[in-house]
């Protein structure tokens, strides 16, 4: 049977993966209220089509932090991708390169920065703050040396959320899948988590922005107050994110949080969004509400689980095709020109 959308790929991935592994990537924190809300909230926002517009062709191209991308759908950082496919992050990078977009490599990846860089993909490096600030500096230097073009500082994980699916299945990331970015020759997943610092503060952002040659993207902001502080402390961009519902349950859906963040930023820096994006129409809604682009994590991961690089690429192609169609039907042939005139809050 042909897989025709992201939901089909998730269902196929669920059949292929061991239940614990599927639950690890699909699940969220607590009662998974925020996990579900991220998806459901998109349905409360309605598109407002404009008619009698020449939509002979549609362009999904834009720029993100000055980088030209063919698709305003970036690949979000997802840890331990070799759990779902032996080619892991390298296959994902190749898929992102084929789609003409950016891949964000997780600190907790199961591939090296150098291996991902060798694919030629436009790439950002996702960074946690560790207890050993020297380790942070080493990672930044390594990202710079291997051609990564931005740092994505994840700020919503000072401690790990309680993910009850994993408690029920007993799933843990296999110890024989080391995290090669950390330690000499890599450390185990459990050891990597123990290195994270709960004392992350605005000073860390300020220092990183001041000392790195790379722009710093702050990922994990859901409110206007923190968005303003991010601007003041040197962020080049913000990702409106609740960690895919995997950290604090009960947080607002990201599409609902987006307008407040966009308003607080006031055009000073770029705003992106992740969480709940499953359709091209979701991308249209996010861009219309002020996001420069969106990030997707689970969607291409399901493609990777089903068919490796080809599967991840196919999911990105599906999202591109859906986005192109939505642009034509909403009467805005260029994704970069979407505005609040194209969206409204529904009932």
Q: Helical region count?
A: 13
Architecture in CATH? Alpha-Beta Barrel
CATH class: Alpha Beta
Counted beta strands: 12
The gyration radius over C-alpha positions equals 19 Å
Tally of distinct domains: 1
Kindly report the name of the CATH homologous superfamily.
Aldolase class I
Concise account of the structure shown:
This protein has 347 residues and is an alpha/beta fold.
3D structure, described in words:
- This protein has 347 residues and is of the alpha/beta class.
- The protein has a single domain, classed as Alpha-Beta Barrel (TIM Barrel).
- It has 13 helices and twelve strands.
- The chain has helices at residues 6-16, 19-26, 33-44, 88-99, 113-117, 133-145, 164-169, 189-194, 202-211, 224-232, 254-265, 280-288, 298-330, and strands at residues 45-47, 62-64, 67-69, 73-75, 102-105, 122-127, 151-154, 216-221, 237-240, 270-274, 293-296, 343-345.
- An eight-stranded parallel sheet has the order 4-11-10-9-8-7-6-5.
- Helix 11 links the parallel strand 9 and strand 10 (270-274).
- Helix 10 packs across helix 11.
- The chain is globular.
- The model has no long low-confidence stretch (mean pLDDT 96).
């Amino acid at each position: 049977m042909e897989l025709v959308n992201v939901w089909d790929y998730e269902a196929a991935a669920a059949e292929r993966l061991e239940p614990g592994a599927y639950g690890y990537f699909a699940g969220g924190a607590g009662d998974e209220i925020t996990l579900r809300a991220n998806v459901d909230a998109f349905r409360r926002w309605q598109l407002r089509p404009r008619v009698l517009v020449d939509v002979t062709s549609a362009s999904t191209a834009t720029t993100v932090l000055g980088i030209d991308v063919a698709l305003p759908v970036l690949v979000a950082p997802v840890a331990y991708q070799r759990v779902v496919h032996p080619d892991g992050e390298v296959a994902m990078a190749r898929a992102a390169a084929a789609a003409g977009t950016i891949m964000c490599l997780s600190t907790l990846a199961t591939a090296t920065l150098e291996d991902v860089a060798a694919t030629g993909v436009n790439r950002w490096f996702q960074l946690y703050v560790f207890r050993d600030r020297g380790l942070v500096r080493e990672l930044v230097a390594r990202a710079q040396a291997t051609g990564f073009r931005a740092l994505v500082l994840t700020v919503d994980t000072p401690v790990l959320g309680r993910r009850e699916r994993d408690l029920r299945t007993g799933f843990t990331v296999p110890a024989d899948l080391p995290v090669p970015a950390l330690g000499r020759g890599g450390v185990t997943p459990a050891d990597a988590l123990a290195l994270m610092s709960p004392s992350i503060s605005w000073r860390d952002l300020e220092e990183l922005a001041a000392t790195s040659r790379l722009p710093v993207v702050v990922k994990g902001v859901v409110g206007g107050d923190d968005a303003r502080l991010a601007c003041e402390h040197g962020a080049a961009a913000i990702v409106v994110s609740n960690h895919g519902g995997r950290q604090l349950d009960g947080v607002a859906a990201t599409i609902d949080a987006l307008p407040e963040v966009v308003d607080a930023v006031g055009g000073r820096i770029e705003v992106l969004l992740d969480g709940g994006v499953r359709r091209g129409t979701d991308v249209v809604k996010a861009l219309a509400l002020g996001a420069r682009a969106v990030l997707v994590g689970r969607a291409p991961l399901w493609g990777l689980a089903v068919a490796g690089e080809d599967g991840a690429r196919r999911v990105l192609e599906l999202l591109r095709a859906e986005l192109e169609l939505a642009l034509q039907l909403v009467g805005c042939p260029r994704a970069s020109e979407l505005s609040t005139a194209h969206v409204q809050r529904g009932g």
